[in-house]
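Quick one, T. Sequence first:
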Amino acid sequence: MPESSNDHGPLRHGVAARRRQRREAVEGERSFFRSLGVIGGLGWMIVLPTLGGLALGRWLDGRFGSGIMWTGALLVVGVGFGCRLAWRRIHHP
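C-alpha cells:
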C-alpha cells in the first residue's frame, strides 16, 4: 500500500524534536573556562585595533611632526573599531 504524505507527520515531529535537543545542548550553559576564553577573545578584539591605531598614530606624528594629533585620533578610531568588532561578535556569533 503506498504511503501518503500524512504518514510522515510523526517522523517530522521526531526529527524536529531531535534538532531542538541538539541545539539546546550546543547552546547550553558554558563552563567557567570556556566563558573566560570568550571574554579573553573579546578583550583582544578591542586591544589589537587600539594598539594598531596607537602605533600608526605615533608613526604618523613622528613622520609629520604633528605632536599627538594623529596618535589621539587614531587611538579613538582603534577603540571604536575594536568595540564594534566585539559588539558584532556578541550579537552575531
